User: Fold this.
Amino acid sequence: MGNRNSVASPASGQTRDSANPGSPAALDASKLSMTLAKTLKPLQSIETLRFGQSFSDHMIVATYDPEMGWSAPEVKPYGPITLDPQCSCFQYGGNVFEGMKAYLGPDGKARLFRPDMNMRRMEKSCARLALPPIDGDVVLELIKRLVNVERRWIPKESGYSLYIRPTLMMYKHSPDWNVGLGVTASDHAMLYILASPTGPYFSKPVSLLAVSENVRAWPGGTGGHKVAGNYSPGFLPQRAAAEKGYDQILWLFGDDRRVTEAGAMNFFVVVKRDDEDGVDLITAPLDGTILPGVTRASCLALANDPEFHKEISVRLHPQEMVYTMSDLAKWSSEGKLLEALAIGTAVIVGPCNRIGFEGKDIVIPGDEMGPIGTAIRKKILDIQEGRTEWKGWGVVCT
Assistant:
């Protein structure tokens, strides 16, 4: 992985490709250097862990220059980074990121869950924002190295993990461009990777407020990529939902009020079939407006696997289809809407107990997660935490 035939520039710390002297250097995990913290932070008790609130001792940083290419990546103590105020990441939101987790298995080994999917998505997100291209396989190797350095931060308890946030952002323009705040893609980039110990994302079932006056994504936009600009426009609708007593937004789209996502998560419903042959597991299709979530893909794969059906003694029929608020209301009135699930890296699988729409609530049966959501969550956690081997989804950090 990466380009192992590179030479350093003494003045800049950048590297050139020694085999092709005129080519910018590729990101190279073999060039990783380590500057370890002199004093390590005390570990928090798991009861105090909140998502994204505390960070481990170290991070990884590398920068891209269009002439020299990628600098040698460095493990360094977690701390502030220095950026010019004119950087494109501030002015135009030229940032992409990924979210993934490392878990400790019963064998004491740290594992990532289907990280290749995160890396392919990160590559596509970079291309969508005209960021310098990045080799996701090399980023994954750097992530594994960071996880091994920070292994003591991975909680041993089930449901807890070390959240990993690799970020690539537009940095600045070449000095000779003289564009300043010009609305153009940056030719410099910075990669950094953070690690944060975390516990369960939700402590109880969540309520959703369905909204159509604001949209999370639109055809031809960036909804199918994990870019920073997708998230901040949802903050105001989220605040309005909270003021009305709801935990998250259920995003609708179009005049027919198609159901898309829940907050920053994929959304599934479990619906009873007329033929009594198991149940349908329904989610919106990947039409460019839906984030292709790793957990989403995993839920669909399990729901389509006869071996998993035997494990849970239920036949699941996964459906990627357009459906609307009218469909949800109809299924609910007919007693067919059995479960509603928020799906994502942070939450894994979480239950939704009611959906507010036009002044009324669609109430989901039960006070806790239903049997389908429970079975899928348990299976995914067993794979993530190394209790079950399943199709190579758990990747050991070696």
Q: What stands out?
A: The radius of gyration is 22 Å. Helices lie at 88-91, 115-128, 136-149, 235-243, 294-303, 306-312, 325-333, 371-384. The longest strand covers residues 161-170.
